[in-house]
Amino acid sequence: MSQHDSTDGPGGGVLIVDFGAQYCQLIARRVRELGVYSRITVPERAMFTLQHMRPAAVILSGGPRSVYEHDAPALDPAILRQGVPVLGICYGLQWLAQHTGGEVTPAQSGAEYGRTQLEVVDAEGLLAGVRDGGIVWMSHGDKVARLGPGFVVLAKSAPCPFAVVADRARGFYGMQFHPEVAHTEDGARMLANFVLGVARCRADWNPGNIVDAKVAAVRDLVGEHGEVVLGLSGGVDSSVAAVLIHRAIGARLHCVFVDNGLLRAGEREGVEALFRDHYHMDLEVVDASERFLGELRGVADPEQKRKVIGRIFVEVFRDKARQKRGARFLGQGTLYPDVIESVAAHGGATSTIKSHHNVGGLPADLDMTLVEPLRDLFKDEVRAIGRQLGLPSALVDRQPFPGPGLAVRCLGEVTRDKLAPLRAADRIVREEIEQRGLHRNLWQYFAVHVPQKSVGVKGDARVYEDVCVLRLVSSQDAMTADWELLPVDVLKRIGSRILNEVKGYSRVCLDISSKPPATIEWE
Ligand code: XMP
Predict the structure, then answer these.
(1) Which pLDDT score, from 0 to 100, does residue 325 have?
(2) Residues with Cβ within 6 A of ligand 1?
(3) Verdict on whether the full-model pTM lies above 0.85
């Protein structure tokens, strides 16, 4: 039994079929926010998953294709004969229309993108409480030209006579716009009406309440004598996974923390204090900083740096795991977004912007069984579990820190000479922001080392030193981000402390780039 199967559970919840939508994960999150379990699957596996999961409702997502294309995603129409209510969104509506006797054609005016006003025709059920004239967000190239028998119109919009449709008798519903995006007013209400009202899903999903079930599942999987090795990074995911697994099997969990020489000030000590001294876990700290920094010598290309770091991490971790004799299990803090069977994840036309390295980067030849208690959870749910487990807020709510560490904030070749001032400046940034509680409004806040000399004057002497950049961003999910400002007196204090206390900078600058087109990290 894999950890994932354990959530197939007693039935209920919402199965989301991913037709390649940009917003598929958002639909899953919105459903979970209603207190209802949701799971995403690809069209090809939808019937199989449905039989295992026995959901109370199905949502068909949007997607980039046209239903009349010969290689459009193949969903077995038998899904419409399971007696389960179905909501089609955008492409999902078009698929539904096509398989219930309707007709889909290219939108006459070409693709329709952006905001439009909804004219509610029938406010019963699905659109109960939804305001007439509210804004909805469209993004589609095709549209339904004719509905099949049994369907009625619940709402329309100027460009779209079939904005919301229903065949109530059969439990089929469709929306041409996206209720899951924040720009759609009352979108959350529409989803709630479908999930809780039409489909009568039980709102019994609460990540904080599943700790006991997770602990029991780990015990089941690992057995009475099994030993688990886990790579602890000190980030939220691996920390929560460690505490959960530790609760299940105690001293049979062996944590390995790799110091790659690219950590922030105080990081290693913090992990030791919490996990070894407070939780009394078996924690081994491997100081591999010489090796990482040695192999990074002369490497200036960002992608190359990431590859070197990822490779060494796997090598160091694999050697340690092998030394933990008898351990047949590998613990990881893998999250749901990493494992979703999504169209985008399987051969979608997404381009690599940066090759991400995670501590979990799995050594394939380790031949160990995975223990991944968080693999059906989103980040905010993992935080809820962390709180439930009593982890301190400083850890549960901490800002993300990338696997390659300070290397992606230290432009060009990484050297100890550059890391030292960066570390000191970053500590000042964190201190000044956190002691005022300003971090609650920020997704990430850190310093970047730009090895570009500029002239300054310190005391009476001319200096010629590097640039320190302040990066402050807000974000929901790191996919997009906005730059943020701090009160001027705080900015002044940060600037003056860095210039006065840190040797190596003659200038502090503020990054005012949003993502896109910039990224959050500098490399
Ligand atoms: P970018 O720079 O791509 O970063 O806008 C988006 C988010 O991902 C984090 N990040 C990483 N996290 N391994 C990680 O675990 C990585 O290799 C990595 N690179 C970037 C970054 O801090 C931001 O939150």
Answers:
(1) 72
(2) 354, 356-358, 400, 402-404, 444, 478, 515, 519-521
(3) no
Which regions of the chain carry the CATH code 3.40.50.880?
A: 14-198
* 479 Cα to the center of ligand 1, angstroms: 10
Give residue 13's pLDDT.
95
State yes or no: pLDDT of 351 exceeds 70. Answer: no
Query: For ligand 1, what atom is nearest to the CA of residue 475?
Result: 24
Query: pLDDT higher for 20 or 414?
Result: 414
* pLDDT at 1 (0 to 100): 30
Domain 415-510 in CATH 2.60.120.970? The answer is: no
Mean pLDDT, rounded, for 291-298: 98
In a 13 Å sphere around the CA of 481, the CA atoms on its Cβ side amount to 24
Residue 519 CA, ligand 1 centroid: distance in Å: 9
CA distances from 471 to 169, 226, 482, 492, 515 (A): 54, 44, 10, 15, 12
| Catalytic residue set | 90, 178, 180
State in words which class domain 207-396 has.
Answer: alpha beta
pLDDT tens, residue by residue, 59-69: 999 988 888 88
3-state secondary structure of 229: strand
Half-sphere exposure of 79 (CA within 13 A, CB side): 31
Chain centre to alpha carbon of residue 299? 30
CATH code, 14-198:
3.40.50.880
Determine the distance separating the centroid of ligand 1 and the alpha carbon of 319, expressed in angstroms: 26
